[in-house]
Amino acid sequence: MTSKIANIRKQLLSDNWYVLNKYTFDLQRKNGGFVEQVREVYDRGNGATILLYNRAKGTVVLTNQFRMPTYVNGNASGMLLEACAGLLDEDPPEQCARREAVEETGFQVSEVKKIFEAYMSPGGVTEIVHFFIAEYQENERQAAGGGVEDEDIEVVELPFSEAVAMIADGRIKDGKTIMLLQYLQIHRLME
């Protein structure tokens, strides 16, 4: 069923960090009638994420960095262990994933594979994230990583089995990272 909306009204609430708009609209219901709805929509642009893995070593490379929204929502340290990611900034998704891998982890990987794309929080955020994986080799490390400008990112290489266990015990809570690790697990790429 395709949703039908009418009488869309848009009000800019914020254009500070990203763009927050308030939309008021009439949504057509299954019975043909309409109901007015009001939603705030946060537009931060689309992004890409990439999980680096090394099958021979049985490891993955993640990043650890401060994330204010997690701090506000109960993460006492604000630090989040996650796959590297970033906004497209008008680059094609694969180019963004490669750029973020170098900036955040220092690895300039040769083979990159797109596995899917997904809305991560469609109830309030417009962002589509493009998901990639890449097998890394030690000789592909071009720099120390750690991010750019105001970023302070720790590069973390750990056994794949430990990363999967960290999902179960709550040390990894980032949705995109969980999805990428489970992709490797489901497709038996680390066996």
UniProtKB/TrEMBL annotation:
InterPro entries: NDP_pyrophosphatase, NUDIX_hydrolase-like_dom_sf, NUDIX_hydrolase_dom. Keywords: Hydrolase. SUPFAM superfamilies: Nudix. Signal peptide: none annotated. This is GDP-mannose pyrophosphatase. Its cofactor is Mg(2+). Coiled coil: none annotated. It comes from the Bacteria. GO terms for molecular function: hydrolase activity. Nucleoside diphosphate sugar hydrolase that hydrolyzes GDP-mannose as its preferred substrate, yielding GMP and mannose-1-phosphate. Belongs to the Nudix hydrolase family. NudK subfamily. It catalyses: GDP-alpha-D-mannose + H2O = alpha-D-mannose 1-phosphate + GMP + 2 H(+). Pfam families: NUDIX. Homodimer. Residues 43-180 form the Nudix hydrolase domain.
